[in-house]
Amino acid sequence: MIRAKSSVVLLCAGTIALAGCVTPEPQNGNTRTQNGALIGAGLGAVIGGTRESGSDRLKNAAVGAAVGAILGAGVGSYLDQQAEELNRDLGNDVDVTNNGDHLVVTMPQDVLFAVDSASLTGSLQNDLRTLAHSLNQYPDSTVEVIGHTDNTGDAGYNQDLSSRRATSVATVLRNSGVASHRIRAFGRGENEPVATNLTHEGRAQNRRVEIIIRPN
């Protein structure tokens, strides 16, 4: 039993180590798929290895790793394809990042909204409708719409503004056919900057709406 448990640990550790060696930024079309397979294998081994006991544990870990690898590779391929299409179809102001197990679509608030307003303006509304079309083409996912601000002004006001802006974006997605149960909208205010708030350029980067797409 001790040997089986040790083998499970070694299998999981080896898989996690391999996953850590995967290049974060994709160098070819298969990188995210391979990363998903490795992560899935590790999770499958952990889950499989906790079932039964004794000599069956290692066998279950191996089976779990194999199944997890297949599922993980499928998720990676799913995201690779959707990210490629979004990068092709969305405007240059929109950033699409594939993090391996989810996509992050980032839209600058300064283009989406007028100053101190949660009413959508500008051409990025067309990009939101394009994004909604993609979400309808890839329906097996959940969507988080998160508003962010810089640290100018009152923190409580910024929190409320970021929430209202996230809700406005989510409304466009729903009105474009994305099922309501898939979407959550909320604000983070000034709490999660991606750049310094000490410069004009940094504050502009922090004023953003992120749409996070997570495969189910």
From TrEMBL:
Keywords: Cell outer membrane, Membrane, Signal. The keyword Protease does not apply. Residues 1-19 form the signal peptide. PROSITE patterns: OMPA_2 (PS51123), PROKAR_LIPOPROTEIN (PS51257). It is found in: Cell outer membrane. Transmembrane segments: none annotated. One of its GO terms (cellular component) is cell outer membrane. InterPro entries: Bact_OuterMem_StrucFunc, Gly-zipper_YMGG, OMP_bac, OmpA-like, OmpA-like_sf. This is OmpA family protein. The lineage of its organism: Bacteria, Pseudomonadati, Pseudomonadota, Alphaproteobacteria, Rhodobacterales.
